[in-house]
Amino acid sequence: MDNQSGNKSFSIDITGEVCPMTFVKTKLLIEKMKHGDCVDIRLKGREPLKNVPQSASELGHEILSLIPEEGEGPDGTHHLLIRKK
Q: Which tens digits make up the pLDDT trace of 7-19?
């Protein structure tokens, strides 16, 4: 999907994965994206919620938001939005 700036939006569901595969799959997708593209990552669990945003940030990507799905607790399913830098 293209947004107003011409960049594409991607999505990936890694709720069924465990670390380190959560970030491996995320990183592989980000590597295929162009500068400025965004990805919505659906993830859950204490480790992925900590490690995926931290690892993406360490690689220089911009963390736009981390929002829980309705009714989910602190370690439940969240949506992480990242912009590739």
A: 899 999 999 999 8
CATH number at residue 22: 3.30.110.40
| Catalytic residue of the set 19, 59, 63, 66 | 19
Please report how many Cα atoms fall inside a 13 Å half-sphere around the Cα of residue 68, on the Cβ side: 9
Enclosing domain of residue 62: 9-83
Catalytic: 19?
yes
Q: How far apart are CA 74 and CA 15, in angstroms?
A: 14
The model's pLDDT over 28-48, given as tens digits with 9 standing for 90+, comes to: 999 999 999 999 999 999 999
d(CA 11, CA 81): 9
Query: Which residues have C-beta within 8 Å of that of residue 58, sequence separation ≥ 6?
Result: none
